[in-house]
Design goal:
single chain, about 1350 residues, alpha+beta, 43 helices, 33 strands, phosphatidylcholine flippase activity
Length: about 1350
C-alpha cells in the first residue's frame, strides 16, 4: 500500500513465461481495489474526512471552549453527546459503504483463472495473475486482464467476444491471433514460448493498441484486433490462450472507469455558506454582548465587587468582556445545532428507502426494483434542468424487427386502422417449416406475392439472404441460430428466412440457402465491405446456373445515386416510400442488384486483387475498386426496420419536457439512426420550428454553422413573436452587426445600445428548435474558444442529439453544461461506455439492461426502464426537494427562536452569560423535544399526491429555479425566528414582572420565567410545524403531539424531588415546573405569546392563498373538489405514462413529408474480409430476443405542439421570479414565504371538472364513461382552456391568450376569487373567466 509509485511508462516490455524479468519493471498486479479504508486506516482517515466539514470542525472548537471552566456556563456534555452521535452515525455509514466495496473487490479478485506455470495449467485467483503470464480462457468466461491472443480452438486463431462491459455494444466481435502464434495450441508449445512484446504504456483508448512481438529473430505488428480486454466475455469459442499485457489498474477497463467524484447537492453547498454567515452573525452577537459586559462592569459592576468579586483570572473589565465573548459564543452556538446534520442524513436515508420500496418503479419482467445507491443526492433530483441520455438500450430495447418494405414500387406492411379490426399475425409454419416462430408480420399480401412466384419479390428476399455477414449454426435439423454482427442484419436475414429464402450456412467461398424449399449453393466471389464512408455493402456471387450477380444494400442517399437511369420512375416511388418509413422513425435501407458478365468480373477481380495487396493506400484503392463496380445497378426496393423503443419513452420525454427539463441524447450511433430514434420518441417532431444539423469538419466551418443556426433562431423568433417593429432598429440583416466579435465565443454585438450579452439574447428565443451535431464537429465545438458559442446555441434548443460521440466526449459535454449553465445535470445510460458521463453529471442513473452492470455500479440511482425516470424526478425528486426545503426553513426558524432569547436576556442579566433555560432543556431541545416532528415532516410531507405531480409537470419548476430554499428564504426564516424570540422573551417578562400568585407571592423569579418561556417556546414551535405540515400521517400526529407531551413529562421528572434528592448538585430547578404550571396567569401568558407568534403567520398565509394562490394550492383545491363531487365509480390513478395504456397498438404518429434518410447500419468494417478468408467458419448464433409490444403514444403529438409565444428572462440566482404575463391588467408581483411551496411563476387556480356554468355539463357527464388520461393536454384554440378525458382542466389549459410563459401560469383574479369563495363556503361566483372547452 505504501510502496513507492514507479515512474510513468514510456513503453511497456513484457516477456512471456518470465516473471522474474517482468517483475523488475514493477508492473501493477491484477488485484483491483476500489475501497477507501482498511482496518488500520479507517478511524484516522474517516475522522480526518469528517472534520473537513465546516460544521464538524466548528463543533469541535466549541467543545474545546466548553472544557475551559472560566468561560463555559454550559456542561461539556451538551456538545459532545450530539457531536459523538453525528460522527458515529457517519462513520458507520461510511464503513458500511466501504464494506460492500471490499466485498465487491474480493469477489472479483478471487475469481479463478487457469494460468500456465512451468508447463502445466494451475488454478490461480485473478489477484495473483501477473504481467507476462499465459492464461487459458474457456467459453463464457470473463477475460481476467488485457491479453494478447496467442491461439484459439477456432480455425486460424479466431475467437469471438462480447464487449458490452466496455463499449455498451452487445453484438459479437471477432479477434484473431498473430499467425505465427496461432499454431501454439499445445500447452508444451505455449510453455516454451518466450516471445517479447514491446507496446504502448497503459491508456484508456479502447479501440487502439500499438505494439510489436519479437520472437525467433522476427517481429510482428500487433493491433487492437489481437487483444482481449478485461471485461470482455469469451463467446462461442471452446478455449483460447492469451498473454497478460496489462493487469489490474493498468487495464483499459479500469483506466476508463475514472475516479469516483464526491457529489454534493446545491443545498449542501448553500448550507456551508449559511453556516459561515451564521457563524459571522454569532460573532457579531458575541461582540455586542461583550461590549455590553465591558460597559456594565465598568459602570455598574464595580458596585458589586465587595460581595460578588471577579473570579481570580479576571482583574479588569476588559478581560471580563473577553471571557464573556467566548461564553456567549458557547451559549448562542445553537443557532446551528449539530443535530441539523444528523437530521438531514436521516431524512435522506428515508427518501432513499421510499425510492427502493416504490412498487411503481419495480420491473416485474426482469424482477428488478429501483435502487437508490446513494443517500446524499435525493433533493437534487427535484432540481434537474438537463438530462443527458444514451440511446441504445436506454431509450430503445436494442431489439430490431422487420416492419415494412417496398418492392418494385409496392409497399407492404401498412399499419392498420387503429379504430378498425386488428390484423392477424401471419403464421409462416405451414408455408415454411424453417420459419422463425418469433418473427412478427401482419401483411398477408407480401406472403401471397412470394407464394405466387413474383420475380421482384423473390429477388428482393434472395438479396437479403445473400448480402450479409451473418453466421449460422444449425444444431439440429431446421433449428437455425443466427449470429449477426448487428441487430439490423439479424432482422433482415430472419425476414428473408420466414418468406422462404433461408440462409443455411457459409464457407469461405460459398453461401448455402434454401429457396422456396429448394437447396441452392452460391459461389461467393467477393464481399465489398461496409464502412462509415461507403454506407453500403455488396456481395458478388455466382449462382448454380453460372450467372454472376452483385447484390448491394445501403443508405438510400448513396445507393440511389448509383442506379441505372432506367430506374428513375421506380426510384421516385421508392423514395416516397422511404420518406414515409423515415417519417415513422424506422431504420431504412435501399436494395439494388447488377448482373455482371464474365469479362466484367474478371477485369474487376484483377483490379480488386492488386488493390488488396497494395502496400500503401490500400483502403483508398479498395474504395476506388468498389466504387467502380457498384454502378448502373437496378433498384429492387427498400426495407424498414424498427428499433423498438422501451415502453413509455415518448410519454416520459414529453412529460419531462413540460417540466422544463431539456433532454440531450449522446450516442455513439450514426446520425441517421439517432435522428430516427429522436423522431420515434418524439424528441424531434415536424411541429418544431427547425432542426439544425452541425456537421462541419473544421473549427471554422463548425463556428459558421453554429452562428447560422443562432441567427436563424433569432430571425424566426422575431417573426414568430411579431416583434419586427420593436427590434428593427436593433437588428440588421441576420441580427448581428458585421465585424464586431464578442470575447465570449465569437458572437457579434447588437447595434442598439445597451448591447445585451449573447446569452441573454438566446435566453429570449421563442419557438421549438433542435440541434443535431456529429462527433467530429463536437470535437471542435468542445474546444475552449468554441464552448460558449456552442452552449449558447445548443441551450436555446429544446432537444439536442450528439452522434458518434466517444465516452470521453460524453463526459466533456456534461462538464461543459455544468460549467457554463450552473444547472443541475442528470446522466442516464446502461453501458460501460456511459460510465464517464454518469460520473461527471451531478446525478448518475444506471439502466440495468442488456449491456452489463458497469453503468449501474457507477451510478447514484438505478432501475430497469427509462420510463421510471419520470417518477424518480417528478415524484420522488420533487418531494425530496420540497421536504428538505421545508425542513431547513423550519429548522433554522425554531433554532433562532430558541437561541435569540439568550441574546435579549443578556441585557437584563448584566451580560453575565447567564442562560435563560435550564441546561437540560438546552441539551434536549434539539435532540428530543423538537427533533421528531421535523423529521416526520422532512420524511413524509407532501404538497400534492404523486398522481398530481405527474399530471402537472409545472409543479417541478420551483426546484429548478431554487425557489423554496435560497438566501432570501433563509433570511425570511431567521426574521420569523427572531420575531418569535422577541415575543417569547418580552411578553412573559412584561407580564410576570408584576404578576403574583394567588397567595400574593410575586412570580417575578428566574426559575418561573425560565419554565414559562421554555413552555411557550415548545408550544409555539409545535403549532408552527403543525401549520407547516401539508400531509398528515399517524406518525406525524404521534411525533408532534407526543413530543409536546414528552416535554411536560421530562420537565416534571427533571424538576422532581426524587432526582434532586439523588443529585442535589445537578438539578437546581426542583419543584419549579409544578409550582409554575399551576398558576393561571402563566397559562394566559403562554396563550398570549402563542397567539402573537402564530396569528400573523396565519393571516399572511390566508391572504397569500386568497390573493395569490400558487399552483400547488390550486391543485390541492381541485383535488378536494374532485373528491367531494366525484361519483362512486372509481378511477385508475397510474403514472402519467400509463394513462394511454388502453389505446390500441399502432405506429407512433407519422411525421410529415420532410425528406431525410432513415439509413441505419451497425457493421464493423473488416468483417467481410474475414468471411472470405475462411477464418470464422465456426460460430454459433445469438438467440433472438422476444419482441415487446409497441406502446402507443397517440396523445404525445398533442403535448408536443406546445409553442412559446412569450418568454421571459429566467429568474435570478437568488430565486426571485419575474412576474408572468397575466390576462388581467397589470401583473401580480411574486410573493414568497419561508414555509410556502411555490412562488412567482407558479400561480394558477384550476377550475374543477364540475363547474357551475351550464355549458360544462355535457363534458362532465360524458367524461364519466371512461377513466381520464392524466397529464397531457393540447393547446386550446384562441387560448381557451381544454379538458382532460374526465373533464378536468390541465395546467396547459390555463395559459393566457397571449401565449405561454416559460413556467408562467396565469389566470384572471376573478377565477382565483371564485375558487376561494367556494372553498370558504361562500356563494359561488356567477361567471368564471375560465371555461371548459368543448
Amino acid at each position: 500500500m505504501f510502496r513507492k509509485r514507479p515512474p510513468p511508462e514510456e513503453e511497456r516490455k513484457v516477456r512471456a513465461n518470465d516473471r522474474e524479468y517482468n517483475e523488475k519493471f514493477q508492473y501493477a498486479s491484477n488485484c483491483i481495489m476500489t475501497s477507501k479504508y482498511n482496518i488500520v486506516t479507517f478511524l484516522p482517515v474517516n475522522l480526518f474526512e469528517q472534520f473537513q466539514e465546516v460544521a464538524n470542525t466548528y463543533f469541535l472548537f466549541l467543545l474545546i471552549l466548553q472544557l475551559i471552566p472560566q468561560i463555559s456556563s454550559l456542561s461539556w456534555f451538551t456538545t459532545i453527546v450530539p457531536l459523538a452521535l453525528v460522527l458515529s452515525i457517519t462513520a458507520v455509514k461510511d464503513a458500511t459503504d466501504d464494506y460492500f466495496r471490499h466485498k465487491s473487490d474480493s469477489q472479483v479478485n478471487n475469481r479463478q483463472s487457469q494460468v500456465l506455470i512451468r508447463g502445466s495449467l494451475q488454478n490461480e485467483k485473478w489477484m495473483n495473475v501477473r504481467v507476462g503470464d499465459i492464461i487459458k480462457l474457456e467459453n463464457n468466461q470473463f477475460v481476467a486482464a488485457d491479453l494478447l491472443l496467442l491461439s484459439s480452438s477456432e480455425p486460424h486463431g479466431l475467437c469471438y467476444i462480447e464487449t458490452a462491459e466496455l463499449d455498451g455494444e452487445s453484438n459479437m466481435k471477432v479477434r484473431q491471433s498473430v499467425s505465427v502464434t496461432s499454431e501454439l495450441g499445445d500447452q508444451n508449445n505455449l510453455a516454451s514460448f518466450d516471445g517479447e512484446v514491446v507496446c504502448e504504456p497503459p491508456n484508456n483508448k479502447l479501440d487502439r493498441f500499438c505494439g510489436t512481438l519479437y520472437w525467433r529473430d522476427k517481429k510482428y505488428t500487433l493491433s487492437n484486433q489481437n487483444m482481449l480486454l478485461r471485461g470482455c466475455v469469451l463467446r462461442n469459442t471452446e478455449a483460447c490462450y492469451g498473454l497478460v499485457i496489462f493487469a489490474g489498474p493498468d487495464t483499459k477497463l479500469m483506466q476508463n472507469s475514472g475516479r469516483t467524484k464526491f457529489k454534493r447537492t446545491s443545498i449542501d453547498r448553500l448550507m456551508n455558506t449559511l453556516v459561515l454567515w451564521i457563524f459571522g452573525f454569532l460573532v457579531c452577537m458575541g461582540v455586542i454582548l461583550a461590549v455590553g459586559n465591558a460597559v456594565w462592569e465598568r459602570e455598574v459592576g464595580f458596585l458589586f465587587q465587595s460581595y460578588l468579586p471577579w473570579d481570580p483570572p479576571v482583574d479588569n473589565f476588559l478581560f471580563s468582556a473577553f471571557l464573556s465573548f467566548w461564553s456567549y459564543v458557547i451559549i448562542l452556538n445553537t443557532v446551528v445545532p449539530i443535530s441539523l446534520y444528523v437530521s438531514v442524513e436521516v431524512i435522506r436515508l428515508g427518501h432513499s428507502y421510499f425510492i427502493n420500496w416504490d412498487q411503481q418503479m419495480f420491473c416485474s419482467q426482469c424482477n428488478t426494483p429501483a435502487e437508490a445507491r446513494t443517500t446524499t443526492l435525493n433533493e437534487e433530483l427535484g432540481q434537474v434542468e438537463y438530462i443527458f441520455s444514451d440511446k441504445t438500450g436506454t431509450l430503445t430495447q436494442n431489439i430490431m424487427s422487420f416492419n415494412k418494405c417496398s418492392i418494385n414500387g409496392q409497399t407492404y406492411g401498412e399499419g392498420s386502422d387503429p379504430l378498425g379490426p386488428q390484423p392477424k399475425r401471419l403464421d409462416f409454419t405451414p408455408f415454411n417449416p424453417l420459419a422463425d416462430p418469433d418473427f412478427c408480420f401482419y401483411d398477408d399480401t407480401l406472403l401471397e406475392a412470394v407464394k405466387v412466384g413474383d420475380t421482384h419479390t423473390h429477388k428482393f428476399f434472395r438479396l437479403l439472404s445473400l448480402c450479409h455477414t451473418v453466421m449460422s449454426e444449425e444444431k439440429s435439423e431446421g433449428a437455425l441460430l443466427y449470429k449477426a454482427q448487428s441487430p439490423d442484419e439479424g432482422a433482415l436475414v430472419t425476414a428473408a428466412r420466414n418468406f422462404g429464402f433461408v440462409f443455411r450456412s457459409r464457407t469461405p467461398g460459398t453461401i448455402t440457402t434454401t429457396e422456396m424449399g429448394r437447396s441452392v449453393t452460391y459461389t461467393l466471389l467477393a464481399i465489398l465491405d461496409f464502412n462509415n464512408i461507403r454506407k453500403r455493402m455488396s456481395v458478388i456471387v455466382r449462382n448454380p446456373e453460372g450467372r454472376i450477380c452483385l447484390y448491394c444494400k445501403g443508405a438510400d442517399t448513396v445507393l440511389l445515386e448509383r442506379l441505372h437511369p432506367c430506374n428513375q420512375e421506380l426510384m421516385n416511388i421508392t423514395s416516397d416510400h422511404l420518406n414515409e418509413y423515415a417519417a415513422d422513425g424506422l431504420r431504412t435501407l435501399a436494395l439494388a442488384y447488377r448482373d455482371l458478365s464474365e469479362d466484367e468480373w474478371e477485369a474487376w477481380s484483377e483490379r480488386h486483387r492488386s488493390a488488396a495487396k497494395a502496400a500503401s493506400c490500400r483502403e483508398d484503392r479498395l474504395a476506388a475498386a468498389y466504387e467502380q463496380i457498384e454502378q448502373d445497378m437496378v433498384l429492387l426496393g427498400a426495407t424498414a426496420i424498427e428499433d423498438k423503443l422501451q415502453e413509455g419513452v415518448p410519454e416520459t420525454i414529453a412529460v419531462l419536457s413540460l417540466a422544463n427539463i431539456k433532454i440531450w441524447v449522446l450516442t455513439g450511433d450514426k446520425q441517421e439512426t439517432a435522428v430516427n430514434i429522436g423522431y420515434s420518441c418524439k424528441m424531434l417532431t415536424d411541429d418544431m420550428t427547425e432542426v439544425f444539423i452541425i456537421s462541419g469538419h473544421t473549427v471554422q466551418s463548425v463556428r459558421q454553422e453554429l452562428r447560422r443556426a443562432r441567427d436563424r433562431m433569432i430571425e424566426m423568433s422575431r417573426t414568430r413573436d411579431g416583434k419586427e417593429e420593436g427590434v428593427e432598429g436593433c437588428f440588421m440583416g441576420n441580427g448581428f452587426r458585421e465585424g464586431q466579435g464578442d470575447s465570449r465565443g465569437g458572437e457579434k454585438q447588437l447595434q442598439c445600445p445597451p448591447p445585451p450579452p449573447p446569452s441573454n439574447l438566446m435566453d429570449n428565443i421563442s419557438g421549438e428548435f433542435a440541434l443535431v451535431i456529429n462527433g467530429h464537429s463536437l470535437a471542435h465545438a468542445l474546444e475552449a474558444d468554441m464552448e460558449t458559442e456552442f452552449v449558447s446555441t445548443a441551450c436555446a434548443c429544446k432537444a439536442v442529439i450528439c452522434c458518434r460521440v466517444t465516452p470521453l466526449q460524453k463526459a466533456q459535454v456534461v462538464e461543459m453544461i455544468k460549467k457554463h449553465k450552473k444547472a443541475v445535470t442528470l446522466a442516464i445510460g446502461d453501458g460501460a461506455n456511459d460510465v464517464s458521463m454518469i460520473k461527471s453529471a451531478h446525478i448518475g442513473v444506471g439502466i440495468s439492461g442488456q449491456e452489463g452492470i458497469q453503468a449501474v455500479l457507477a451510478s447514484d440511482y438505478s432501475f430497469s426502464q427509462f420510463r421510471f425516470l419520470q417518477r424518480l424526478l417528478l415524484v420522488h425528486g420533487r418531494w425530496s426537494y420540497l421536504r428538505m426545503c421545508r425542513f431547513l426553513c423550519y429548522f433554522f426558524y425554531k433554532n433562532f427562536a430558541f437561541t435569540m432569547v439568550h441574546f435579549w436576556f443578556g441585557f437584563y442579566c448584566g451580560f453575565s452569560a447567564q442562560t435563560v433555560y435550564d441546561q437540560y432543556f438546552i441539551t434536549l431541545y434539539n435532540i428530543v423535544y423538537t427533533s421528531l416532528p421535523v423529521l416526520a415532516m422532512g420524511i413524509f410531507d407532501q404538497d400534492v399526491p404523486d398522481q398530481r405531480s405527474l399530471e402537472y409537470p409545472k409543479l417541478y419548476e420551483p426546484g429548478q429555479l431554487n425557489l423554496l430554499f435560497n438566501k432570501r428564504e433563509f433570511f425570511i426564516c431567521i426574521a420569523q425566528g427572531i420575531y418569535t424570540s422577541v415575543v417569547l422573551f418580552f411578553v412573559p417578562c412584561a407580564i410576570l414582572s408584576d404578576a403574583t400568585q394567588s397567595t400574593g407571592v410575586p412570580l417575578a423569579d428566574y426559575q418561573t420565567f425560565a419554565v414559562t418561556t421554555a413552555t411557550a417556546l415548545v408550544i409555539v414551535v409545535s403549532v408552527q410545524i403543525a401549520l407547516d405540515t401539508g400531509f398528515w400521517t399517524v406518525i406525524n400526529h404521534v411525533f408532534v403531539w407526543g413530543s409536546l407531551g414528552l416535554y411536560f413529562s421530562i420537565m416534571l421528572a427533571l424538576q422532581s424531588q426524587t432526582l434532586f434528592g439523588i443529585f442535589p448538585n445537578q438539578f437546581h430547578f426542583v419543584g419549579s415546573a409544578q409550582s409554575t404550571l399551576l398558576q393561571p396567569v402563566v397559562w394566559l401568558t403562554i396563550a398570549l405569546a402563542t397567539a402573537i407568534c402564530i396569528v400573523p403567520v396565519l393571516a399572511f398565509r390566508f391572504l397569500k392563498v386568497d390573493l395569490k394562490p400558487q399552483l400547488s394550492d390550486t391543485v390541492r383545491y381541485t383535488q378536494l373538489v374532485r373528491q367531494k363531487k366525484r361519483k362512486p365509480a372509481g378511477r385508475s390513478v397510474g403514472g402519467a405514462w400509463r394513462g394511454v395504456g388502453s389505446v390500441s397498438e399502432g405506429r407512433l404518429g407519422a411525421r410529415g413529408s420532410s425528406r431525410r434518410s432513415g439509413y441505419a447500419f451497425a457493421h464493423t468494417e473488416g468483417f467481410g474480409e474475414l468471411i472470405t478468408s475462411g477464418k470464422n467458419m465456426r460460430l454459433s448464433s445469438l438467440a433472438m430476443a422476444t419482441f415487446a409490444s409497441r406502446h402507443s403514444s397517440s396523445w404525445i403529438d398533442t403535448l408536443r405542439r406546445k409553442k412559446h409565444s412569450h418568454t421571459n428572462t429566467p429568474p435570478s440566482a437568488s430565486g426571485e421570479s419575474s412576474p408572468a404575463p397575466s390576462c388581467v391588467s397589470g401583473s401580480i408581483p411574486p410573493l414568497s414565504n419561508s414555509s410556502s411551496v411555490l412562488c412567482g411563476s407558479q400561480d394558477a387556480p384550476i377550475e374543477e371538472e364540475t363547474g357551475a356554468a351550464p355549458d360544462t355539463q355535457t363534458a362532465s357527464s360524458s367524461s364519466t364513461q371512461n377513466p381520464p388520461a392524466p397529464a397531457p393536454a393540447s393547446e386550446a384554440a384562441d387560448g381557451s382552456a381544454q379538458t382532460l378525458n374526465a373533464g378536468v382542466l390541465t395546467p396547459a389549459a390555463l395559459r393566457s391568450q397571449g401565449g405561454d410563459s416559460p413556467g408562467g401560469w396565469t389566470i384572471s383574479l376573478g377565477a382565483v376569487q371564485e375558487a376561494l369563495l367556494r372553498w370558504k363556503g361562500r356563494a359561488s361566483a356567477s361567471n368564471s373567466p375560465v371555461k371548459l372547452a368543448e
